[in-house]
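Narrative of activities, Objective 1.

The group set out to show that a structural description can be obtained from nothing but a protein's sequence at a throughput compatible with the screening campaign. Below is one input-output pair from the validation batch, recorded exactly as produced.
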Amino acid sequence: MAGTTKGARADVGFPVRPARATGLRRRWTQRDGFPTMNGEDRPAPGRRVVAPGIENGERTDMKIDVIVESARDLRPMHHMAFLMAFWREGGHAVRVVQALADEAPGDVGILHIDLTRIRQSTLDWARRYPSLVNGGLQDISKRKISHNLVTADDPYAGPVIVKTDLNRGGKPEMRRDRLWFLKQPLGLLRREFARRGLWRSVRELPPNDYPVLPAKELVPAWVWKDRSLVVEKFLPERAGDLFASRIWVFLGDQGYGRLELSESPTGRGTRAVERRHDPEVPVEVRAFRERHRMDFGKIDWAYSQDGPVVFDANRTPSRVSIPVGEDRDVMQRLSTGIASFSAGNGGA
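Output recorded for this entry:
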């Protein structure tokens, strides 16, 4: 079975609520066999993921629903956009479904909501799927997943880093605030002062970086009182004069790893000096994934002096971490992980 099911869109769009679907009606062109804007949404001809048909008396094609709440949940740079293209090429019926819509569920539902916390009502609605990817991962805030948090009274004496509790600096939540545009002039001014190193005075973290301080005693008092911020132990991995960070992206039983070297202690706001394969994932990082019931996503981690340490988790990863020229093969292998969720297997 090729293409999409009746009522589903071949491009990225909602099957319901047309007024809200406008921003999702995107078309993509090919760049090295991958979708960008204005054209087809399929990989290069001849590439198949899980071949549709009959295997051992059972169908191997699936109806895959990618569940979103907003146009911002599924954009061309997301891994999911590329995985969808491969699945369609492989004969699976793929559609984008808005959460809480009155739609008959497919075989597999994938929660792809670019927010730190997923609403309970959305989770309850999505659990009607035979297999639900990331159904057990409701909250990826630092306070929920971090094992490196520091309080003002802790005896810890090493360097610390100040972060937002929300993922990605809270930007996805900020952009969904209906009054966001009214807050922009003042917010932009504060962020500009913060970018210039005055973040303590304006009480705003730098927009593209997290402050690293030699000791927790240097953390401003207002940070400890701000529930939107957290303080963590700063546990870097060094590679000579550079800082190393590692990522693991996975879907079911498939995944890939990368090592990135940067001049920035946090790896944010700068381009990687070097990026290479890092296939080894230690048992501690795998245990973190298992503990938080992550079916699909990205984990940021590193080797600190105390061993492997996880920094962050993301359930809607983007492909910026894939070296140019390697993305097609990497994504094709990753896409085959969807077979882990067939016939009710896997998921939450």
